[in-house]
Write a structure and sequence with these properties.
Chain A is mainly alpha-helical and 265 residues long. Chain A is built from 9 helices and 2 strands; from the N terminus they run H-H-H-H-E-E-H-H-H-H-H. Chain A has helices at residues 16-19, 22-38, 42-58, 71-86, 99-125, 127-138, 148-178, 189-221, 237-255; strands spanning 92-93, 96-97. Chain B has helices at residues 5-16, 20-42, 46-63, 66-79, 86-107, 112-130, 134-140, 142-172, 176-198, 200-233, 291-299, 337-342, 352-357, 374-387, 404-415, 514-521, 556-563, 578-594, 609-622, 639-654; strands spanning 253-257, 261-262, 265-266, 271-275, 280-284, 307-308, 321-324, 392-396, 421-426, 436-439, 469-480, 488-499, 503-507, 529-534, 540-543, 627-631, 658-663, 675-680, 683-686. The N and C termini of chain B lie far apart (66 Å). Classes of the chains: A mainly alpha (265), B alpha/beta (688).
């Protein structure tokens, strides 16, 4: 099992969040993200972060589910924090200006909160169910001429193929990595890297197009190139409540200036 | 054949809608884009992987209609939500836009300047102006902009402060000129920051302009090479027209031909076969005889001119023709058990548990198909076929992943189908004597034997290892996703030593950790516990089950030169290099040893699976690999293929290379085996 496919795996525990309809989770995640990007005031970022934390706890997820950041990213984050702290903006505590650090934290927390929402979605739902949710959410768009059946079929087949393709990328990656660098390129790191990307991409694309051909034959063997329509959603009271809260939060982000006010001047 | 008005309408509609091949290509492209963006996220190397994702879309755009590109991009962007919100969504959308630009210019045969022009015309505004969310958010939304700009300012100020305080240290020891210099550096930083912030409305588009040009150049240069190979490699299968399946009448069917074709190449000896209603037939023959091609022809896939039937083939429709092909994971199209059973039969009421019980499965209907084993996938596909109550059922090696008890059960079920004509392929003799036998001979475009050298003539390739013991594993354990909720221990406390010239076979059931052990032995995976010591200078390699993925160059010659570390471009050969001379000599020995001299000018894709493996192993041995690990090399091989593999491995041994074969097949016994081990409960024990 490849590393990438752990992105798409739910954690097999039960919780109220696991039992929410997937489309509820997708839509409310998007609404909260939109609100945050529109108005990244501390109060709003704080509420979203607290909410994400609460949902994380409610979802009965172990802390070990959080992926470890690559060391390079950690160094980068740390370096950025030092730079920001050294700027010495107001407010000042013990003679150290914390304003820059606070602004920096706000930006980082904003990013992490958005990723955490997506993480909760994938750890409590799983790729397959998200695929169905996306197709249900898209369905109304057919009235404005969007080819939802075709997009839906492609979503389904892509979800079906994703773990296979991810494993294939891993095999190709390993075999390219273990082969000696082309002799004519040794000592030319830039061209070597370029050749490496070219080799990997070529092998992956050709391998996956062979898979696409199998997929086409399999569909034709079933006599239909259109995925069956997803079952209608089965919204419960709690889903309506969650959606209502998400809409309210999104609207509030647009209407309320937030504390401290982020309006310049 | 007359067309009703409704099917004429359907045909007209299908001009606009995507056909099967377009849908499948779009889906695979979307899956690749999402998988690449996920990998980029994990490795924190987003932009490199975004370029690769764009190039993947470019390949689609160069071969298919724009409609397929738009739909693939929409699907990829939608699925990307699961990767972390709006950023990956916009990355997927951008990969679509840039890929489309690159693909269009390749399709139209444009030069570099026109192709950069198109990218600037379409890709640049898309990137600068409307990356789905963030740039409009910055442009319209002063609040986010303020936050971002304040951070830029702070970083510049902070860096400036650090530099000046260091400088003032120098000032106190009398090095005033350094203090002055740091002061001007700090001022410069602040000036740059305020310049960036004051001119953001110009600078963001300008940066994206540069990016767009880079994208256009990179995508174009990589995609063109791949497309050339792709077009030579993949020949489109010709499909039956699905709109004519209303009143299927597939029997009796005759296939008569001098030779059936696959991908435009002859693949069978002369064929003359007739199947009538209710007849049960077995297609027998070795690998490469064209059994699957015959079955596909009966299903209406390819070779239409060789097939004669009274009416529509009705592939996949109720009471028509049903087909289950060979590779289990390629037969199932739905993402859940239920979706797969409903595919193409959405109008029929479904009692999932009864349909599954019919083939001996007990699965919840919402189980994702990605979690099913090979045997479960085979039976699920068979259940879908049986649900169609076909007049003609075509099954290709459908029990290959089942254990003997399940095999028997499925065979009994198929034998009991009295009203259905059943055509099966097999290379095992387990058919009832009442079945018709359709023998097919091995068909090769050229001689089947390899012009191998006699063992006496061979020189052993000099190994770089002096020690007798190549690898020693002590108390080795491996846990997948260690410390994460999906933690799963596969190997535990495993002791194993491999010596020079040894041939070891490790057997194990599915899921026993065979592949993990193979990857650890080959050095591409580090154990999570225990110790593994490799001899100094040891070169080792892993041959995967699907060798094809490991061969990266278009021709055999290029491939073995690349594998053995020689330049593929002959003008690059340096006659004075002793290293190259040794490698060239090794390669020559290896080519002779593996008998692939006559294949050198062939394209990799024209070779059989066995020949591809020979090429890979020849290259690895020439490179001086002293330990070779093979993962499941026996899958799908008939008796002839197995003896060919045994021959190949004998040649590897002659070159002085140790071999570990990891397999779930317990029946295989090559001529020399030094150790036979069983992998069970995470550890190995010797077989008596």
């Amino acid at each position: 099992m490849s590393r990438a496919s752990s992105f798409f795996r739910p954690v097999p525990v039960d919780s109220p969040i696991h039992r929410l309809r997937p489309e509820t989770k997708v839509v409310s995640g998007i609404l909260v993200s939109i609100g945050l990007v529109f108005n990244p005031a501390w109060s709003h970022v704080g509420v979203a972060a607290a909410l994400a934390g609460a949902v994380f706890v409610m979802a009965n997820l172990p802390v070990s589910v959080l992926p470890r950041l690559p060391a390079l990213v950690l160094y980068g984050l740390f370096g950025g924090a030092i730079g920001a702290a050294a700027s010495g903006d107001d407010p000042t505590v013990f003679g150290i200006g914390l304003g820059g650090l606070l602004d920096y934290l706000r930006l980082i927390v904003l990013g992490f909160v958005m990723i955490l929402w997506a993480g909760i979605l994938s750890w409590t739902t799983g790729l397959t169910a998200v695929g169905f949710a996306i197709r249900r959410i898209m369905r109304p768009l057919r009235h404005v001429g969007v080819p939802v059946d075709e997009i839906g079929t492609v979503v389904t087949l892509a979800v079906r193929a994703l773990p296979l393709v991810a494993d294939e990328i891993q095999v190709v990656n390993e075999s390219v990595n273990t082969r000696p660098p082309p002799a004519d390129l040794t000592g030319k790191p830039f061209r070597e890297a370029f050749a490496f990307i070219g080799d990997t991409a070529t092998a992956v694309v050709i391998g996956s197009h062979r898979r696409a051909r199998d997929l086409a034959v399999a569909m034709v063997s079933r006599g239909s190139i259109s995925a069956p329509a997803p079952n209608p959603p089965d919204f419960r009271k709690i889903d309506r409540l969650v959606l209502f809260v998400a809409i309210a939060l999104c609207v509030a982000a647009f209407v309320l200036p937030g504390v401290p006010s982020t309006d310049p001047n | 054949m007359t067309r009703s008005s409704s099917s004429a309408k359907a045909a007209k509609r299908s001009d606009k809608h995507l056909d099967a091949a377009e849908i499948a290509d779009a889906a695979i492209t979307a899956a690749l884009v999402v998988a690449l963006l996920a990998t980029g996220r994990l490795l924190a190397a987003g932009s490199i992987f975004q370029v690769i994702a764009s190039f993947v879309v470019a390949v689609l755009a160069a071969r298919r209609r724009t409609r397929a590109v738009v739909i693939a991009t929409a699907a990829a962007a939608a699925i990307a939500i699961i990767l972390g919100g709006l950023g990956p969504v916009s990355q997927a959308a951008l990969a679509g836009v840039f890929g489309w630009c690159g693909g269009q210019s390749i399709k139209r045969g444009w030069g570099l300047f026109r192709s950069i022009g198109l990218t600037l015309l379409v890709g640049w505004p898309a990137m600068a102006g409307s990356i789905l969310f963030f740039y409009p958010a910055i442009a319209i939304n002063k609040k986010l902009r303020t936050l971002l700009f304040e951070n830029v300012e702070n970083q510049a100020d902070g860096l400036g402060n650090i530099v000046t305080s260091l400088g003032s240290l120098f000032g106190t020891v009398g090095l005033g000129f350094i203090e002055d210099a740091t002061q001007s550096v700090a001022n410069g930083l602040a000036d740059i920051a305020s310049f960036l912030i004051d001119n953001w409305i110009l600078l963001i588009p300008a940066t994206e302009f540069v990016y767009s040009v880079i994208y256009a150049v990179v995508i174009r240069s990589v995609a063109k090479g791949v497309l050339n190979r792709l077009d030579r490699t993949l020949v489109e299968p010709t499909f039956v027209d699905l709109s004519h399946s209303d009143n299927p009448n597939p029997l009796p069917v005759t296939v008569r031909s001098e030779s059936l074709h696959r991908s435009g190449v002859s693949v069978t000896a002369p064929v003359d076969v007739q199947i009538v209603a209710g007849q049960h037939a077995i297609v027998e023959g070795p690998n490469g005889a064209g059994k699957s091609t015959l079955l596909d022809a009966l299903a209406g896939i390819g070779n239409a001119d060789a097939v004669d039937r009274p009416g529509a083939v009705g592939l996949g429709s109720v009471g028509g023709t049903a087909r289950v092909g060979q590779r289990p994971e390629a037969q199932v199209v739905g993402t859940t058990v239920e979706e797969d059973l409903r595919w193409g039969l959405d109008q029929e009421p479904l009692d999932a548990s009864a349909v599954l019980a019919d083939v001996g499965l007990d699965l919840p209907s919402d189980r994702p198909t990605s979690e099913l084993s090979g045997g479960e996938l085979q039976r699920l596909a068979l259940a879908s076929a049986l649900r169609r109550r076909p007049q003609l059922l075509l099954v290709d090696e459908v029990t290959s992943m089942l254990d003997p008890i399940e095999q028997k059960r499925i065979n009994t079920r198929l034998n009991a189908l009295a009203d259905t004509a059943v055509v099966r392929t097999t290379h095992r003799d387990d058919a009832p004597p009442t079945d018709t036998r359709i023998p097919m001979e091995r068909f090769r475009r050229d001689s089947a034997h390899h012009d191998q050298a006699e063992p006496d003539d061979l020189r052993t390739i000099v190994s770089s290892v002096n020690e007798r013991r190549l690898v020693r594993m002590q108390g080795v354990g491996y846990t997948h996703h260690a410390g994460r909720p999906w933690e799963h221990r596969v190997l535990e406390n495993l002791d194993l030593s491999i010596h020079r010239y040894e041939m070891i076979v490790v057997e194990g059931r599915n899921g026993s950790g065979k592949t993990t052990l193979a990857r650890i032995l080959a050095g591409s995976l580090t154990p999570t516990s225990g110790e593994i010591v490799a001899a100094k200078g040891l070169r080792r390699a892993l041959a995967y089950q699907h060798v094809r993925l490991q061969l990266l160059r278009p021709t055999v010659n290029d491939e073995i030169r690349s594998l053995s570390g020689l330049p593929t471009d002959l003008t690059q050969i340096d006659p004075t290099s002793a290293k190259q001379a040794t490698r060239a000599a090794n390669l020559e020995t290896s080519v002779e040893l593996f008998g692939i001299g006559r294949l050198l000018d062939r394209r990799i894709d024209e070779l059989s699976g066995g020949e591809q493996r020979r090429v890979l192993l020849a290259g690895l041995v020439a490179r001086g690999v002293s330990l070779l690990v093979l993962d499941e090399p026996l899958a799908g091989l008939d008796a002839a293929g197995r003896s060919d593999l045994a021959d190949t491995l004998d040649q590897v041994r002659l070159a002085g290379t140790s071999i570990v074969v990891v397999s779930h097949d317990v029946e295989w016994s090559p001529s020399h085996v030094d150790q036979r081990l069983v992998l069970e409960n995470g550890s190995v024990r010797a077989l008596p």
